Amino acid sequence: MATKKNNQSNKDINYYKKKFWRVFAYSLLGILAFFLFASWGLFGSMPSFEDLENPDSNLATEIISSDGVVIGKYFKTNRSQLKYSDLPKNLVDALVATEDARFYEHSGIDGRGTLRAAFSLGTNGGASTITQQLAKQLFHRGGSSFLPFRIVQKIKEWIIAIRLERQYTKNEILAMYCNVYDFGNYAVGVSSAAQTYFSKDPKDLTIDESAILVGMFNNSSLYNPLRNPVGVKNRRDVVLGQMVKAKMITKAEKEKYQALPIALKFKLESHREGMATYFREYLRDYMKKWVAENKKPDGSDYDIYKDGLKIYTTIDSRMQQYAEEAVSAHMQNLQQQFFIEQKTNKNAPFVNITQAETDRIMMQAMKNSVRWAQMKEMDKSEDDIIASFKVKTKMRVFTWKGERDTTMTPLDSIRYYKHFLQSGLMSMEPQTGAIKAWVGGINYKYFQYDHVGQGARQVGSTFKPFVYATAIEELNMSPCDSILDGPFMIHKGRHHVTADWEPRNSDYRYRGMVTLKQALAASINTVSAKLIDRTSPEAVVELTKKLGVKTEIPVQPSIALGAVDITVEDMVAAYSTFANQGVYVKPQFLSRIENKSGEVIYEPIPESHDVLNKDIAFAVIKLLQGVTESGSGVRLRTQGGGSGDNRWTGYPYMFTNPIAGKTGTTQNQSDGWFMGMVPNLVTGVWVGCEDRSARFKSLTYGQGATAALPVWGYFMKKCYADKNLQISKGEFERPANLSIKVDCYTRPTIVKDTTATEQNTDEFEL
């Protein structure tokens, strides 16, 4: 009986052994099949070899200055690519110590970590390696809450992680992970996060800053430094503790960093803020046309928002910063005076216009507004839309002291914004055409019209050098030739004039015989009129076109006084021709474009052509030097002050080097200009309100010498202070065997009261 029971017992044991091994074998085969089917994509697509080789990284296109600074980006996802060598060692150490201590030991899956997580049911830490987290970020992002799906996703992560480990080195995997993680606030990747939260490049991150970013890898929504500083500090301290455990820092260092507060220098990267906003928008418009004409090797279109292009520009970040600072400082200063003058103006900021003209301006502004467009889309009637502009509403407005919350009607806000003086500045190397600085306005967020490349404004007396250059070329005149400043008239019928035209000087007086150099320095209108009468308007227009001016110029004698609309960009290019010995070089803002792999996919070809011979170009330079020696630009060299000197931002300038320049002021002081040149840099500045009827009432503040010249002076002071820029203080190159007399006899200077107002510097064009 006992023997029978023993046989039965042995039979049962063998049965269960066989059953166990059968279940084990089937389970193992099932798991292997599951992994195999998953790798084949039966449970959802898996990345191919090509996908692993070139993962969809959705990279932002970077705009890079000539001195190697990223001045802006185009992106839907703000992500920049970093190489492992670009990552700070302290961040890599912190990441490995916190997220995956055995990163350098495993092949994509940490077996010990997986078993620990399985036996503790996830209560003793997760099991995802950095490689698995990268796989998740690259190929399927969020996890499912449904357990069977979550298991499938986890298996797919394992498979992709193993493939990634075979495809890339450990350092490349670390760099990729640091490039794809979303840190919130539109910052994807360590590069964008460092700029957004600390306003610095990754290589400059301190240990505690790196610990903050590594802490965010755990959960960037929860550990957001802006919303949860306490939680971020605690998480940072955990990361520092892990670094101590891994012997990457000492206990003393940990305590030192733990004592530090969370110190942010937050700067949200957006298309409407940051450096060179107007230039970046101009470049974006250019790139829209570029992608239509330049295709990828496979024939598809480039996408500037996700293809990770690198656009290398000619802009110098230092000069751009100085230009923006100069515009901001002077416009804030000048705006105070404008507000003071408008306090007694019942129709502010408009001067000497009728109610009908005012209504037309305001109606046009309403129709151009976003509010009007939005309400039109809602099928609102015109009467309803106009009525909505008269209802008070809460809004945030621009002021020179920062944004301010207020309550006013949209109609009042339109009138408020029309008070603001605008400015445009462009700076260019005349020999290369390289644009070094571009400031299209005072604040792109609130005023998006670009006054450099987009807005053509009347140029006033800055047009006169084109007339003088034509006279020197056509009539064989020189800066030292004399001409009579006296009453002058072009009669009806001559040069297409429809009525007798008699120009007058701005000070309503005549000086008798003067040299051309004296005439341009004093901006004498009658002399310019006489010169264009002798050369013909057609000859002046022809030369101006050769100088690169694209706007249509009327063939009329009045253009001699500047009754012509030209952009700042075209004016700078035209003046650069004189500084470049008569050779016009088309303004250039691109150096090259690279794809995300660093391959050059585009290099522009410089465009240039001869306009004037060297002697004539140099003669014009000598004429323009007279403006800063004795004319309206003389305040660049003085320190005595004068009328309106409290609005000459940066004064005294006290430049002693050769400067060629010209001020310009249009009728009723609607536009103020200054064109300034040194041998290797030409800069043009325009100042005025959006509407020409919004202006200063007098020449004291409305003339180019007060409105625009100080921007140039302040900008150049900053450029000269930066020795690395190497802006020239030398003489303009004098042609060998110069055939034109340029060194004129001048009487000895008479000492006078330098605080007196210069009467002959104001300009007024009819």
Automatic annotation (TrEMBL):
<feature type="domain" description="Penicillin-binding protein transpeptidase">
    <location>
        <begin position="428"/>
        <end position="680"/>
    </location>
</feature>
<keyword id="KW-0511">Multifunctional enzyme</keyword>
<comment type="pathway">
    <text>Cell wall biogenesis; peptidoglycan biosynthesis.</text>
</comment>
<keyword id="KW-0573">Peptidoglycan synthesis</keyword>
<keyword id="KW-0812">Transmembrane</keyword>
<keyword id="KW-0472">Membrane</keyword>
<keyword id="KW-1003">Cell membrane</keyword>
<dbReference type="InterPro" id="IPR001264">
    <property type="entry name" value="Glyco_trans_51"/>
</dbReference>
<keyword id="KW-1133">Transmembrane helix</keyword>
<dbReference type="InterPro" id="IPR001460">
    <property type="entry name" value="PCN-bd_Tpept"/>
</dbReference>
<keyword id="KW-0328">Glycosyltransferase</keyword>
<keyword id="KW-0378">Hydrolase</keyword>
<protein>
    <submittedName>
        <fullName>Penicillin-binding protein 1A</fullName>
    </submittedName>
</protein>
<keyword id="KW-0961">Cell wall biogenesis/degradation</keyword>
<comment type="similarity">
    <text>In the N-terminal section; belongs to the glycosyltransferase 51 family.</text>
</comment>
<keyword id="KW-0645">Protease</keyword>
<feature type="transmembrane region" description="Helical">
    <location>
        <begin position="20"/>
        <end position="43"/>
    </location>
</feature>
<dbReference type="Pfam" id="PF00912">
    <property type="entry name" value="Transgly"/>
</dbReference>
<keyword id="KW-0121">Carboxypeptidase</keyword>
<keyword id="KW-0133">Cell shape</keyword>
<keyword id="KW-0808">Transferase</keyword>
<feature type="domain" description="Glycosyl transferase family 51">
    <location>
        <begin position="69"/>
        <end position="243"/>
    </location>
</feature>
<dbReference type="InterPro" id="IPR050396">
    <property type="entry name" value="Glycosyltr_51/Transpeptidase"/>
</dbReference>
<dbReference type="InterPro" id="IPR012338">
    <property type="entry name" value="Beta-lactam/transpept-like"/>
</dbReference>
<dbReference type="InterPro" id="IPR036950">
    <property type="entry name" value="PBP_transglycosylase"/>
</dbReference>
<dbReference type="Pfam" id="PF00905">
    <property type="entry name" value="Transpeptidase"/>
</dbReference>
<dbReference type="InterPro" id="IPR023346">
    <property type="entry name" value="Lysozyme-like_dom_sf"/>
</dbReference>
<comment type="similarity">
    <text>In the C-terminal section; belongs to the transpeptidase family.</text>
</comment>
